[in-house]
């Protein structure tokens, strides 16, 4: 099979699989991810080295003498040159060992895995909530534009977009934890301990992250749907064929609008990661964001680098997933015509 | 010194206060310490919140010799290790004194050059090994070599840490250091770790699961996040601790902590500094609020070694332009006292009025500024709620006196750089501790050898050394009074708001330092966790 040929061979043979455009795209993007992740780790290391006050000074505070700082730097291995430390870290990282925290001496990998589970669940819940609500609301709003529901949804969206995550988080706590005692204000219950407790503990933080996203997605999708419905030839054709308005909206317009939505969802990942750093701090959640913030505050470059690498890998994977979804939704991409 | 919440969060806090938000059952105290309805009860659990930017961070673990943030982690350390000595006070915070705890007694000999610390008999670490003089001496040697700034600043003679029998540790100094016992509770020598457990586990593992002889033992420790402790059944004080379980939870600042308390997610919070929340807590009576006796006043540090403050007239102009009484009333509703001394009213050797201290005199300030041909000042401080409020007010007051003021809020690392650069003008900081000779005391702000002092005055240095070496409290008082006068006469740095953080607790929780007052020995009050108790829940 030649490159770019349609994937019609359903034999499942290895040759066919390896030759498929989708798989070649996955392979290509995976290879592209390596310099991206490497670049992110080098950039992080360099930026950390520019921040005044090293880990030792940061840990010891303003009372520290030069001798105390030097002694701690020696103990933490920070007296070695930057490139040497980076290469040592990189050597371990390629074998899956993300090194030991320069501050605590603890291995980073298990800590990271533990924290990632919390953040992963939080982000997952936020995505499910935001998209799960935004899609039906946007569809309903676009179904009858400029009517009451549409105007209300736009009002909520604009209001939601103008409220910062941390403000919303504090207001949610005030209402649902303090006043109504419905959800916990802080803390995390592991899934292994209690499923309901776990969902309960993540409910408010997930909503705090999800709400601005919901508003953004609703606004974005509604606008795109209305554009599609008002001007596209395929919509006119579908209507001319007698397809009902709801079916035109869902089966035709939404299918096309979903490309844009997938793109913004992928791009939103960075915002989402930024939000988790603040939200985890407010809700005292032992996630990756909290770990990253602590590591930045203590100039623990090994942990910061590990976190950044994980975030970079997640971002690359999310973009890859978005591209694969394009392929699933758009036959032109699936068959390699693009 | 501590970093605090950023402005937007504080604005929200203020808005919420104005809106009178909050809920939950209203019960106890507004202003004063809560009164229990009966005697202390055994049992129960308690979650204590600690600000992630200060006590809620323990990134290097909890081994006294390798922990680098020990000065901030006094709550955790005290709960695990207990302490050889501790600061106690009457319930209203008066009559504060350092008393032996795991130590039985101490004596100062040889004019303050020899200190003998005798331990209680029969003490055991929670691993069953003996808490004896040898164990304490081993800990002292490790603590002295520690990179932590909580390491003691002892003028030790060679081989100056020895034992005299199974229960006595002897310290030999090269010069008299009579203030040593008062300084111990703020340094890592106060916390004695089991040498046997340390050898068996190794330093890294020990830092995560330390073993001491304190009221609680470690169940789990997630660094800078959550520390779960349980009752030590073999604690040396019969019937103590009261609590079965104690959890320290790190949280991102005053506002989330306050809401978590109201929501019943935690039962105590140490170190509240956001004034609007403090006022809300006091006025609504939903929580018990213990505002601690202030020991550490704010001071406007003036760099006397560089222009413009190498000119005494410029320094005097700052004294005359500054009205801390107006700031205390206008910004903080008189919540915090104003001090002319480097130790606040809750500290040792505080003097209400310092002879020669020139206060607010705007006319004099304007006259001096004219005489100087103008005065331009860079005023900085660390990013903290109270400090930033005070800095802004000072800027206004000084500008009214004709002084051009540029303000800057620094991160810790850049603040240190500014000091090391030597070209800074004025820095608003906190000065002093409960005993001026201990911790971030008067030397730290005024000694010629301190990198964070803008003053080089050998006569003042000699006074500080003599005061730290003197055994007799009356003589120490005289020496510190003289030091205070010298600072005032030379207009080295005007003192101001004597500020101390508050501790909050939900109704039904009581304990020394939590619902009663104890002066902060440096920053936060040392809560006596072994005596903290909780009324049985319905």
From TrEMBL, chain A:
It holds the Pfam family BPD_transp_1_N. The chain crosses the membrane at residues 31-51, 122-143, 155-182, 202-220, 259-283, 303-329. InterPro entries: BPD_transp_1_N, MetI-like, MetI-like_sf. One of its GO terms (cellular component) is plasma membrane. It is a multi-pass membrane protein. GO terms for biological process: transmembrane transport. Its main location: membrane. PROSITE patterns: ABC_TM1. It is found in: Cell membrane. It comes from the Bacteria. Residues 116-322 form the ABC transmembrane type-1 domain. Keywords: Cell membrane, Membrane, Transmembrane, Transmembrane helix, Transport. Belongs to the binding-protein-dependent transport system permease family. This is Glutathione transport system permease protein GsiC. It comes from Pseudonocardia autotrophica (Amycolata autotrophica).
